[in-house]
Amino acid sequence: MRFLALDKLINLEDGYRRRFKIDALDLILAREGSDIFAFGAVCPHQEQSLDEAVIEDDIVICPRHGYGFSLSSGAHVEGFCASLPIYEVHFEGNEVGVLLRQ
What does the H/E/C string look like for the chain? Predict the structure, then answer.
C-alpha cells in the first residue's frame, strides 16, 4: 500500500470538508467530531457531488435524493444501490491521507 498525503492534521477542524482530484482518484476528506473519513466524491446512484453531503451517525447522506451510505463499508443503507468507495484514513507525522493499493 502507498500513503497519499492530503492535508495537515492541524487543518482538520470539526466540519472540515475538502475534495481532492488526483489522476483518476476523486474523494472527499471530512471530519465530524473526532472522526475523520475519506469517501468517494460522487454518489453512485446518479453521480451527484457529495461536497454538500451531510454526515450523521457514520452515514453520509447524498444531498440530491437522501440516499445514505455507511462510512465503514460504503454499503447503501437500503441495500439496492451500488456501494460508495471508502478509503482507509492514515496518519504519518502531522499529515493525514489515505492508503492506496498499488
Answer: CEEEEEEEHHHCCCCCEEEEEECCEEEEEEEECCEEEEEECECCCCCCECCCCEEECCEEECCCCCCEEECCCCCECCCCCCCCCECEEEEECCEEEEEECC
**Of 54, 32, 33, nearest to 43 (Cα)?**
54
In DSSP terms, 40 is beta-bridged to: 27
With a pLDDT cut of 90, the percent of the chain lying above it is: 87
Which amino acid does the sequence have at 1? M
CA distance 89 to 96: 7
pLDDT tens for residues 1-52? 899 999 999 999 999 999 999 888 999 999 999 999 999 999 999 899 999 9
Strands laid side by side in the 17-22 sheet: 17-22, 25-32, 35-40
Interval 81-88 mean pLDDT: 95
| Whole-number Å distance between alpha carbons of 53 and 31 | 12
